[in-house]
Fold these 2 entries.
Entry 1:
Amino acid sequence: MSVTPATSRTAVSPFGISFNGVEKRFGSFVALRGVSLQILSGEFVALLGANGAGKTTLLRIAALLASPSRGKVQFTVGHGSGDCSDPGEAKKLIGMVGHSTLLYDELTAAENLSLFAQLYGLDDITARVADSLQACGLGSRTASLVRTFSRGMRQRLAIARALLHGPRLLLLDEPAAGLDRQGLVWLGTTLEALRKDGCTVLMSTHARNESLDLATRAVALAGGLVQHDSGPGGDPRPVLAALRAEA
Amino acid sequence: MSTTRAMAILLAKELRLEFRTRELLSATIVFALVIVVLFSFAFDPTAAESRRYGPGLLWIAFLFAGSLMLNPSFAREQTNDTLDALRMAPISAFAILSAKMLANFIFMSLVELVLVPVFSVLYNVSLTGVAGRLILVLVLGTIGLTVTGTVFSAISSHARMRELLLPLLLLPILTPLLIGAVEATASLLVDQPELDRTWVALLAGFDIVFLTASWLLCDYLIEE
Amino acid sequence: MKGRIASTVFVAALIFFAGYAALFIAPDEKTMHAIQRIFYFHLPSWIAMFTAFSVVFVANIAYLATRKEKWDALGVAGAEAGVVCCTIGLATGPLWARPVWGIWWTWDARLTTTFILWLLYLSYLLLRGLLDDPEKKATLSAIFGIFAFLDVPLVYVSNRLWRTQHPQPVILGGNDSGLDPTMSKVLLLCVIAVMGVMIIVLLDRYRLERLRHEFEELRQEIETRSLAPSSILEKESA
């Protein structure tokens, strides 16, 4: 079982993730009570639920930032049922946008992206970083410290950082938060391009988010369990509509 | 990504961050100087007295200044959760930890580079002829200080009152290092200076024990 | 329950008898007379302390290896029991030293090491108090505990080496050499008795910690269920 390097845009390596009976407790607080979910490669999953339902915890576990108290997370790479058991290899293919920006305020935008480009072992870093900054609309601020950026600009840079190494699994925790009009448009276009490219996306969001139109599946969490799931082949719209009505 | 390569990348980042503002470095140097000056009121700095108390003073100044300087090491990574970003990258926990250890070692060495000549001037202690051996003692002592200090910085960054907690955890652990470094330094300041092998061995032993322990435990330290 | 009462009563009887033996059965010491009798509790408290701290070390390693909460409970129980024994030792020492040798304290290798040990394990408990998240508390204090234990031989060796270079009047040297047979027997009895007390305290603290943890779990569960939407309850009862 080999993992196709994500840096080559020509080879599209399918990347799915499955949660098997995942439980997560923090001391005596149980954030996830047994979540079983299989996400196939190329799906665009909208993860919904109230605050405290367990969305962030689930995403963090998927990003290998936290390990489940019980149950397993498995990545399926390549065609068929090849399991990716090497976390190092899996990490190269995962990108995450979290609640915090995950950026160094005292470094410039370019320095931040360069750092992560180096850590992910990418080549042709200067060009890559320049392209990335241009694409997210920060081309004029490459040499400015992140500390001087507005909220919207930081969020754009955070998203750019997550996409830099060409991940095949994108984990987004309310990525639209703080984005201005221009940023939202850019996010929408980028997500659409990624979906066409076959990237697997797991995005936690509130029901009123625009990007939900791209979703191929809706999963709703409540109290640490999966409450609704439109399924891999199903139609997410009824679930989304129901939740929009509730909200 | 090999650990050494990742360590080099992260070390460059640490150095770049610190040298951009140099706030921590300058504050630490000034603090160490304050301690050195305050000590001058504790005893009469004649040549003989200085040789007796000087080494102790010097190392206490380094230990105290160091334990304040080591705090931001991991606390800094909590703004914007950048530690999460590092943990998500395909690099080992030891790369993250050792990069910080190495960075702290460099910063602490710079502080010592300033303090030792100042000390020698203020207390009339001649260091000519022992400079090389003194540097060896300083290096061994600083390794021990920064290895344990960085680990405890990681530990205390999760706790309340971390500015007070770090010295509280660190200083008792460092007593063997303090004794060894002070005695080794003192043996270099006498009329017939001689590098005391026993103490150098103790310092080296201390460094090896805690470097190994850090390497074995780094995954638990850096995890969620 | 019955076992606990029985063992507590047994240890209580043991310590009572040990105290009686120390005060009345053991022969009077030549030079120090009555005050020397503190030794029968002073030395055993050191032994109990070292045992307790060794338990902490093992518990720390076991926790990191298995992540089972019971090892963390054992760790904190051992640390508290050890700190108590250490405090008793540090307090009784000067009481004895002052009338006999005229000084409250000396910085010899053993005493200094013990003092540092006391500080280290107090810091261990303090660290735990300042960490909120239970898993972090267990993991990080386990790491610190391991470092502290590894440090102890280094502290002792460095102090021994230092003392050979800066000799102090040796005062606590000859206690364990050439003890009168009755004294040895009384000492052994006291060691067992004090160890018994330490073990009882440790086990009680261990049980308390585990009960606390269980209580917290139940409380959280109740809270979550009372807030959860009805669908959760349906799923659970199905």
Entry 2:
Amino acid sequence: MKHPLVKIEGVYKDYQLPKKYLFQKAPVFRALHGITLELNKGTSFGIVGESGCGKSTLARIVMALDKPTSGKVFFDGRDLFNMPARDLRHLRRNFQMVFQDPYGSLNPRKNILGIVAEPLDTLKEKLSFAQKKERVGQILAEVGLNSSDTDKFPHEFSGGQRQRIAIARALITRPALIVADESVSALDVSVQAQVLNLMMDLQEKYNLTYMFISHDLSVVEYVTDQIAVIYMGQIVEQGTTKVLFQNPIHPYTQTLLRAVPDVNPLNRKKKNKDIIPLFEKTKESCPFLDRCTRATKTCVKNAPELLGEEGHLVACFNAD
Amino acid sequence: MVLLQVQDLSVTLQTAHGPQEVISHINFSMNAGEKLGIVGESGCGKSITALALMSLLPPDSKINGKVILEGLDIATLNSREICSIRGNRIGIIFQEPMTALNPVKQIGAQVSESIYLHTKLNQKQALERVIELMDKVGLPVNRFPLNLYPHQLSGGQRQRVMIAMAIACNPDILIADEPTTALDVTVQEQILNLIRDLADSTGMALVMISHDLGVIAQTAENVMVMYTGNVVEMGSTVDVFQNMQHPYTHGLFSAIPHVGSSAQPGKKRLTSIPGQVPELHLRPNGCNFANRCPRASNICREKEPMATRVSDHHQVWCYHPLNREDKK
């Protein structure tokens, strides 16, 4: 039996909202609602959903940047939120993140050496300046930049090159897991293809595991092996990329896939004229109730659980 | 009937590297009710083209060529004359609704602004018109009162307010500059449907600007592919998308992952265009695409290509357009 690299068990995350009245109990926004996932080593896991569905919150929790309200996250069998802070810091070298905006995520006042070597400094690696420079040079060459670029500053690079620098920074600690939060969505299509190819090459070379968060379904389909579709903090459908794209079951997944504009101008989409049955949404109802065309009375009374055969799980009563 | 004619339009902007021509020698014309798509990567000049049509370019920029709206050259008008056209005969929807809307003004007031400016409606009539507009864009006043502020709305709802503002005076031309880039796919679909329906029902001409080939395919009848300030290919959307001639158009298509890629077995690689878009002051002589182009020859580096006709409504600016065999 294969040992998952990351195991997320029943993670809930509540954020406290500001109080409206002084003596009120602070209202709570539930960003994640019982997420359970396993990421296998060397594979790519896609997280798909609309903005505000909790994708980035999940990324922060996997990166141990935020504590879940309840639930556990295991990295290589070790509970991230139940270990001494010192051990966690040592473990951090094994998981790194690449952010969305290559203009915002690189410090403009630091040169590339400083940016890419920063994780080494934080991890208190005892390296001489020359060693550090050599290692940064190596990693820059690997992401397709010049190893002599170490003295340049971020403004001297284009968007795609900056994203390569961000990838180099993530790679320098030789991590096992890279969380890519919308890492290519700010790039132009021709450059996006270059960066995606680079990420896939690096995965093959270092047996990296990716957690790939994106709202762009065609990109996710391209790079991932498995996908979880999240709606309002809950997984509504999960399975291998192939199964999920060929045979989506949950109405939300179907809606998402249908909404991707087709590049063939002869395939003009007909307007969606499905009627959404009107039901009063309660706390117990299915989260997708008010946008679902298949909603019935059962969906109002309780929320469906994530069930299904091996490899393809769906949370819907009316799956057919 | 030709509604808008752009003749030999070039725009020069003042940059840190001195004056630079950001778009050069653009020619196109639009009939009433036509839907034109402009597609290209960032820095290709698609937004500058839109701003030139609206006369919204910075005051120190230089415009050569003509933008003729029903016999009237917009580029030569003074600021008062252009005000009577901008927002009245040409409306525009910007990319980021949160920055395009005024955060301290109620949405009703923002929508009614151009109505007061361009029409002689009194307060009561203007209010009726605003209510009608909000209904049209799917924000009925009983659920979305006019005294809301932009921050109380979601991204898609804000974009609907932008659309209501743009169509308030029944413009002849609606320019949509990346209207859905900041939105989720499902909301994007709704907004695109809305824009398309409005254009169909009112007979407005539509200029849809996007970097997303899918968005263009779904909304435009004719398309203009731009690269570094030049039009590289132009024609009906079906012609250009099905029978592309320019290596850049072909490169763009190969670079996007298509939905359905998981059906093919084996590891896949995207075909990327090598290199990157050259910066303004580093644009090469001859064809701007030459240094990234797999088909480039000596002549491409020396002389800018002229338009070649492929068919009646299909032109390409390339010395070495693709043949049929090259495409697969």
